[in-house]
């Protein structure tokens, strides 16, 4: 069985945020009003964190795209009292919105801060509503939501593969929206257990590391350091 | 049974208690699922349409996913992704591209033709019919023409190319006005750089993918580069594209921009001294003999001292840089350490291919053209011209040329009139269009008072600083027509709004420009039926022309724009070359065939060609023959000119006739603000920059950038982009002034304080953000937000730094000197 994972090459990433907007569009993630945004209630399943170090003129910046880290040992799943946070046999951590009771234990437990709570019902001006993605439900007030590696893309890929009587290929067939968008090819996706995929190759490479690895969460998102 | 979610919370405790074991918990989940009514957007039949994005001038190919609702039968565009066949985008998009959906579904779009109901600037409208709208325009234009005032029609256009631009120019020619004003002034200096050095009046294009060393002077490569997708891909390729090789990028500019952040080395320098720095590097390269001798000897003119036909000896580039640009002197001027100058110059010359870029930063000063010329001279020194990884010239697709226009007497009289903006005269000798000269012309009524203005993708009240401060100046024009699909500051002053379709609703060709070498023709096609009562401006132009009858109507014989488009594209189909956009594998195969002398088209008839182009998104010709030096140099000498003979001829011609005769060359140079004299005028040199505002009163330099999300002026009304305005400050809906912490501390400003930013031109209230990545004497404000009109979101956030920009310009090219304004900053 595939174990889906993402590799993020920080050397290639230009901080353009195409992944951020592509994710918003794909998953019908609402835009919150500026006042709400100031209160820290912006919702970005994928976001780019800028890290600035040093003093003028010796300054360094890194842009770190941060989706859900898709832990193999996910704290959010452990604390969820209603099994709304689940980990599939293929390792994808996703959230069943209909089960969520809004307790936000997962928000507290996640060391990466990738779970978002719907403080308000999502709203779109009538016209903008037309562009909603029909493949994904809109979440009501009071539930948590987060990146699930565009799980619906996997479902589509699986249907297509099943029609041909085979498994989904290790790369190329199932691709989350952020990865489709990335103009710098900084995001690479594939089956980490399939040694033929680029993702598995890079994840084993000398530049690879994982975010807050020491916590024992075993993320399936690998970062490649610059250089 | 139906439960509210809150009610359920109370329930759950009881249930958990009741169910002893895991099974119980699972059951709760199921119960909740049964009671929760998820809202799912309308389902339907999927379709994909290839088109071209128009969120910025990049010209990236996109694919748009449509869903035709099963229940309501409505076709909706629900996703934009990159077109994998399009050579510019190769399957990916930038954030603006994705947000193109929010341009289509912009809730504040104009919904149909309207006439002004209130006073100018109020933005009150009354809907009218298209027939009445077109008839009104025809009547006004006919009257002007009858009075012999055809030349008083101004047409202001933003980024437009291909057939639409040809039709706009054609309309003016047939009607009889010389006044095509382009607001895309940033390209003018790039075009002139190539024209003076290589004799080709086109913006410089760069083959970045294949470069090993990019020395960029202020180019916003990874912010608002053309096209952002291709630039990001080129950057990515430079870094990790070839195993074992990691190309270098060096960024020279006063601010630690995104490009600087991704560069191996950031070299901050004093604003406006880029040219001097480039020439100091040239000094190192020449004095150490590191330049490409073969190329310089065979293909350049004016490197060594030379004698003209009359026997007068002239200064050569070598003597110039050896005498005037010693690194010690330049270091003091630019603030860049001597060691850095020497080291970077050596690296640049030792790495092949290396390319020097001069876009934006270096070009937006009063000495912008000379800066660019100095930087382009570095490319000539290392032979990076028309070679892989160097500068290239954008090829154009072989569209069928439009038949010539018959000019009647009224047209001839109108075209003989001088341009309203003084472009090409002593005011701005090299310019083809100077929008920033229009406010002055409107104030003084000289050389004449314009009587009508067409606005096509141009918004001067937002983008031209004098109009930002004084929008009422536009009211001196008695008849203004806006073709904008969206409300904007300038349209508020229009008498008629004739809204165009948005880019996802119309036919249009998009030949890429100033991006890369090969000819690429993208095709924009309607993804869905127009959502509102809008009309293609091409169609409207044809209808206006036909209403004017006579030679104007004869110049527009088509029924509609798409007919003219097909005719133009017929030339590409018949050109016997290139291919329909396809996969890289297929391209490689076809290129091999082309090398062997075969051209195997995938189509037999034009109809086949057209349907394939529509399906794949366009046509391109991947063959770009490098090293074709005859083609690359069309100067008087047929070589790269270090000594600009064209500039000399141009300026001398101006002193012989017209307004500058009698004052001589020196007088003309004084008027242009050029301090150099003698041969130096015609050589790349450092011209001391002028700034607006006294240093004592206004101690800081203001610079601007176009962040990735705001590269078009229209994107501020798209919430997806408003949330991510600037990747480094990373706060949604916020445009702040960046200031060095040390400077801020002296002024008592803390991070997040509200401040006033003041220039001699005006003031702006903003939040301050302390940032280590900016030189202490510089502050920075991103450009693209802060709209007075433009929709509910655009009007709610940001600030427009154009309000502060003073009236200085690079007078040679008429390019506004956007980075030449000094400011002061105080706590609000």
CATH architecture of chain A, please?
2-Layer Sandwich
Q: Can you count the helices of chain B?
A: 29
User: Which stretches of chain A of 5+ consecutive residues score pLDDT under 50?
Assistant: none
Question: How many structural domains can be distinguished in the coordinates of chain A?
Answer: 1
Task: Provide the CATH top-level class of the largest domain in chain B.
Answer: Alpha Beta
Q: Determine the structural class of chain A based on helices, strands and strand pairing.
A: alpha+beta
Spatial order of strands in the largest sheet of chain A: 8-1-10-9
Portion in strands of chain A? 15-25%
Report the CATH topology name of the largest domain in chain B. Answer: Rossmann fold
| Chain-averaged pLDDT of chain B | 89
From the structure provided, what is the oligomeric state, counting identical versus distinct chains? heterodimer
Taking the sheet with the most strands of chain B, its summary is:
7 strands, mixed
Q: What is the CATH architecture assignment of the largest domain in chain B? A: 3-Layer(aba) Sandwich
* Share of helix of chain B, binned: 25-40%
Query: What's the level 1 CATH class of chain A?
Result: Alpha Beta
Distance between the termini of chain B: 58 Å
Mean pLDDT of chain A, as a whole number?
92
Stretches of chain B where pLDDT is under 50 for at least 5 consecutive residues are: 1-35
- Order of strands across the main sheet of chain B: 5-4-19-18-17-6-7
User: Beta fraction of the residues of chain B?
Assistant: 15-25%
Secondary structure: number of strands of chain A? 10
């Amino acid at each position: 069985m595939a174990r889906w994972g993402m590799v993020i090459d920080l050397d290639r990433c230009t901080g353009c945020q195409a992944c951020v907007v592509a994710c918003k569009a794909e998953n019908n993630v609402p835009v919150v009003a500026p006042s709400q945004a100031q209160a820290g209630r912006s919702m970005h399943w994928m976001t780019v964190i800028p890290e600035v170090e040093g003093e003028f003129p010796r300054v360094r910046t890194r842009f770190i795209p941060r989706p859900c880290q898709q832990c193999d040992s996910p704290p959010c799943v452990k604390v969820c009292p209603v099994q709304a946070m689940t980990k599939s046999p293929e390792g994808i951590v996703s959230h069943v919105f209909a089960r969520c009771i809004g307790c936000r234990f997962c928000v507290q437990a996640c060391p990466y801060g990738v779970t978002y709570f719907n403080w308000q019902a999502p709203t779109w001006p009538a016209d903008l509503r037309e562009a909603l993605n029909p493949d994904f439900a809109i979440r009501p007030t009071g539930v948590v939501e987060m990146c699930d590696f565009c799980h619906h893309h996997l479902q589509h890929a699986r249907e297509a593969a099943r029609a041909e009587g085979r498994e989904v290929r290790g790369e190329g067939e199932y691709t989350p929206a952020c990865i489709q968008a990335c103009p710098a090819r900084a995001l690479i996706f594939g089956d980490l257990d399939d040694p033929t995929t680029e993702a598995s190759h890079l994840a084993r490479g000398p530049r690879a590391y994982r975010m807050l690895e020491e916590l024992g969460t075993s993320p399936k998102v690998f970062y490649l350091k610059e250089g | 049974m139906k439960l509210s979610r809150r009610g359920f919370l109370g329930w759950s405790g009881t249930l958990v208690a009741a169910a002893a074991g895991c099974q119980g918990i699972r059951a709760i989940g199921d119960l909740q699922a049964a009671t929760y009514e998820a809202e799912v957007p309308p389902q339907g039949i999927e379709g994909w349409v290839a088109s071209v994005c128009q969120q910025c001038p990049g010209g990236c190919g996109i694919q748009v996913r449509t869903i035709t609702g099963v229940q309501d039968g409505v076709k909706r565009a629900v996703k934009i992704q990159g077109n994998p066949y399009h050579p510019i985008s190769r399957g990916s998009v930038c954030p603006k591209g994705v947000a193109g959906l929010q341009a289509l579904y912009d809730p504040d779009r104009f919904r149909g033709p309207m006439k002004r109901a209130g006073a100018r600037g109020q933005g009150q409208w009354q809907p009218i019919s298209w027939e009445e709208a077109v008839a009104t325009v025809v009547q006004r234009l006919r009257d002007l023409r009858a009075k012999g005032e055809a030349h008083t029609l101004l047409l202001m256009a933003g980024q437009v190319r291909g057939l639409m631009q040809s039709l706009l120019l054609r309309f003016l020619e047939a009607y009889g006005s010389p006044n095509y004003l382009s607001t895309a002034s940033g390209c003018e200096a790039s075009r002139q750089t190539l024209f003076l050095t290589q004799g080709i009046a086109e913006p410089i294009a760069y083959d970045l993918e294949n470069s090993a060393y990019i020395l960029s002077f202020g180019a916003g490569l990874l912010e608002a580069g053309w096209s952002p997708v291709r630039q990001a891909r080129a950057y990515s390729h430079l870094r990790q594209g070839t195993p074992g090789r990691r190309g270098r990028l060096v960024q020279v500019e006063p601010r630690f921009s995104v490009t600087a952040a991704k560069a191996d080395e950031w070299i901050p320098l004093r604003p406006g001294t880029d040219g001097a720095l480039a020439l100091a590097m040239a000094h190192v390269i020449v004095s150490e003999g590191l330049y490409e001798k073969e190329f310089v000897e065979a293909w350049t003119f004016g490197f060594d001292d030379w004698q003209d036909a009359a026997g007068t000896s002239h200064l050569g580039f070598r003597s110039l840089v050896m005498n005037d640009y010693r690194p010690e002197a330049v270091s003091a001027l630019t603030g860049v350490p001597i060691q850095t100058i020497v080291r970077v110059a050596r690296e640049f010359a030792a790495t092949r291919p290396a390319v020097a870029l001069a876009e934006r930063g270096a070009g937006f000063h009063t000495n912008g053209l000379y800066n660019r010329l100095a930087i382009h001279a570095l490319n000539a020194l290392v032979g990076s011209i028309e070679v892989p990884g160097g500068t290239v010239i954008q090829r154009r697709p072989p569209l069928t040329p439009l038949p010539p226009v018959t000019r009647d007497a009224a047209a001839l009289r109108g075209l003989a009139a001088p341009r309203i903006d003084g472009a090409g005269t002593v005011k701005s000798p090299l310019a083809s269009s100077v929008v920033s000269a229009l406010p002055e012309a409107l104030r003084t009524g000289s050389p004449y008072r314009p009587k009508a203005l067409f606005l096509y993708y141009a918004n001067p009240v937002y983008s031209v600083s004098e109009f930002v401060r004084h929008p009422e100046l536009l009211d001196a024009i008695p008849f203004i027509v806006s073709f904008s699909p969206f409300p904007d500051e300038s349209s508020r002053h229009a008498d008629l709004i004739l809204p165009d379709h948005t880019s996802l609703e119309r036919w249009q060709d998009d030949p890429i420009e100033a991006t890369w070498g090969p000819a690429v023709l993208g095709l924009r096609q309607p993804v869905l039926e127009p959502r509102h009562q809008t009309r293609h401006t091409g169609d409207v132009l044809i209808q206006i022309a036909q209403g004017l009858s006579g030679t104007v109507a004869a110049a527009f014989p088509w029924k509609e724009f798409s007919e003219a488009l097909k005719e133009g594209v017929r030339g590409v189909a018949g050109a016997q070359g290139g291919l329909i956009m396809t996969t890289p594998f297929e391209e490689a195969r076809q290129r091999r065939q082309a090398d062997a002398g075969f051209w195997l088209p995938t189509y037999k008839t034009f109809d086949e060609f057209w349907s394939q182009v529509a399906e794949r998104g366009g046509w391109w010709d991947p063959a770009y023959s490098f090293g074709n030096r005859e083609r690359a140099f069309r100067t008087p000498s047929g070589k790269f000119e270090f000594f600009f003979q064209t500039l000399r001829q141009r300026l001398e011609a101006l002193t012989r006739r017209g307004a500058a005769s009698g004052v001589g060359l020196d007088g003309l140079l004084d008027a242009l603000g050029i301090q150099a004299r003698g041969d130096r005028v015609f050589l790349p040199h450092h011209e001391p920059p002028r700034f607006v505002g006294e240093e004592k009163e206004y101690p800081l330099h203001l610079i601007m950038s176009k962040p990735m999300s705001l590269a078009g002026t229209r994107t501020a009304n798209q919430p997806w982009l408003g949330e991510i305005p600037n990747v480094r400050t990373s706060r949604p809906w916020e445009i702040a002034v960046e200031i060095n912490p040390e400077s801020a501390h002296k002024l008592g400003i803390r991070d997040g304080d509200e401040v006033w930013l003041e220039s001699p031109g005006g003031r702006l209230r903003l939040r301050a953000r302390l940032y280590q990545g900016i030189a202490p004497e510089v502050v920075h404000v991103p450009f693209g937000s802060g709209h007075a009109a433009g929709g509910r979101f655009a009007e709610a956030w940001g600030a427009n730094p154009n309000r502060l920009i003073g009236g200085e310009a690079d007078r040679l090219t008429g390019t506004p000197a956007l980075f030449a304004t000094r400011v002061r900053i105080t706590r609000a």
